[in-house]
Input
Amino acid sequence: MSEEKIKQDPYTYITNCLPRFEFKDRYNKQHQEDEDFDEEEREAGKTWAKEHNERKCPCFDKSRTDGWAMMRKAFARKMDVETIEVPHREPDLFNMYVYNDFAGYGYQEVVENNMAEFNNILNSKNGETEELWTILESMPVWLLDEPNVPWHMIDDGERSWLTYGLLGFMFWAGLSRIDQGGELKPDSKHKDLSLVMSLWARVADDLGGDTDDPFDDVKGGGDSSLGDYAGFNLLWFRYLLALAKEAGIPIKGVAEIDDKVDEWTSQIEGKVKLPPKKADRFGWKTKKYTKQYGRGSKIGGEHFKITKWTRQERAKHAFDKKDPLGDEEIKALKNGMVLQIM
Output
């Protein structure tokens, strides 16, 4: 996908392969009754890779209808995170060691960069709803994928909890903007609205376990005792169920949760009261986080991005005490080229 195409036509929907986690969930559901299920479960990842490598997946085979659609710019964002932003903050890929949680905090920096960009667009006079949506489409896909493991293991629990809460309220700010435009409805021009809401519900399960939500003090928001799903620990997940019901939008399309949504919705019935409709209906704020964890007045940045370090800094942490990037790679980076790591 060319940069020119993304600039010229960023908001057209394109079909993509299922991400690994979704392919595995569907594969495992299909084969869970098989006698050799354990063996086949291990085969799910291989099957996913084989389909893609042989160009038989939905993004190549247009006759298939089981792919996921997202805006072109959202797909580009996802690819940038998966092949550049996260790998460039992973010392193991450079044969380096910095400290135990470095990769996890590098991932946190990528999350913060996305939150900061969202905030800038939201508060810009010319900030387009479609541009906000490309961030909200792409984030849950890479938040749920396998490279997130170090992020879940960082040693600052309070920072993690605050981030988990903010992510949900960022999603809410985007949904509020869509609602103001009259498009928070089943036949919305945002074709993947139902799917993206389902993905964020899946994110809530991934983040909600053992979480003490710092935003969970809102009257009418219910509490974690409403259900045994980990997502119920997060206020924004309970709001998500209530809003989907209010707007008549089904939360569907993600295999892991498709058969659970009706039960969750019944559990919050009459127990969660949504805030009145207004521009910032759910109170999206980053000030508290920025004050606590920002560098100066900003969050995110490139502090953990190894390709931005000096050669001396990289060599200091390399196992062989040599810069893992060669002269040609350094020259290419200086000339604006991108070092992709798959």
